[in-house]
Amino acid sequence: MTSPILLLSDLHLPDAPSPLRERFLEFLTGPARQAQAVYLLGDLFEVWVGDAEGLLAYADEARALRALHDAGVSVAFMAGNRDFLLGSAFAEVAGLRRLVDPIVVNLAGTPTLLSHGDSWCTDDIGYQRWRRFSRNPLAQAIFRRLPARWRQAIGGTARQRSKVDKRAKPAEIMDVNADAITTAFAQSGVRRIIHGHTHRPADHLDAAGRERIVLADWRPDHCEYLQVDDDGLRRVVLPSSGSTRARE
Ligand SMILES: [Mn+2]
């Protein structure tokens, strides 16, 4: 039996102290140590205005991720819509291998398309417009040159707007679009997709027998990851604090 591969997304770790951050450190020093690879599929961090700020705010996470990498576990990071500005400086310190979105990866013998998932939410026109702008290399280069206080203010406004937008939009608009998924299956040729972003954990099976696994977002009382090994897929909930507290 080979070691499992663990996938997780949408932890939305805040830049202030939080039980969620404690749980993630428990994950990194606990189950992640028995894995061969860990895939972080986006929105690991709630906000990212630059690597210098990120290295300060998330120093504990950077250290724990690095320790996991140094222990021989491959740690891959795909950006989400919150942490897409995470750059090579943080990745290098934390020992993260950055992945493009989407990407086909062989997981325990099954070619699998991995994505954060937001690019498939094509019904949300306003969001897609923002996504195109914010992922534009020129826009990002300009943003990176702004003073830290401006970047933080812009980051805060964007998060606030996203919260207000979410409340105003019908729920279906914020889910993935069925045609976008059909196209993704056709273009990649895989029979399994794993993604996050929508906070609607579910195992979808289409008429052709193809699977779309949606990862769960994290809450302090429910921190879930997906485990893939020779036996298949399994959703695992991190045991509640205390029982796995094997801190170094
Ligand atoms: Mn997201």
What's the layout of helices and strands?
Blueprint: E1 5-8, H1 19-29, E2 37-40, H2 51-57, H3 59-70, E3 74-78, H4 88-94, E4 97-99, E5 103-107, E6 110-115, H5 125-134, H6 137-144, H7 148-168, H8 178-188, E7 192-195, E8 202-205, E9 211-214, E10 224-229, E11 232-237
Helix pairs in contact: 1-3, 2-4
The site of manganese (II) ion has 7 residues, from loops.
3D structure, described in words:
A hairpin with a 5-residue loop joins strand 8 and strand 9. It is built from eight helices and eleven strands. Residues 244-248 have low confidence and may be disordered. It is an alpha/beta fold and 248 residues long. It has a single domain (5-237), classed as Purple Acid Phosphatase, chain A, domain 2, CATH 3.60.21.10. It has helices at 19-29, 51-57, 59-70, 88-94, 125-134, 137-144, 148-168, 178-188; strands spanning 5-8, 37-40, 74-78, 97-99, 103-107, 110-115, 192-195, 202-205, 211-214, 224-229, 232-237. The radius of gyration is 18 Å and the shape is globular. Bound molecules: manganese (II) ion (MN). Manganese (II) ion binds at residues 42-43, 80-81, 116, 118, 197.
Question: Notable features of this structure?
Answer:
35% helix; binds manganese (II) ion; six-stranded mixed sheet; 8 helices; five-stranded mixed sheet; alpha/beta; 21% strand
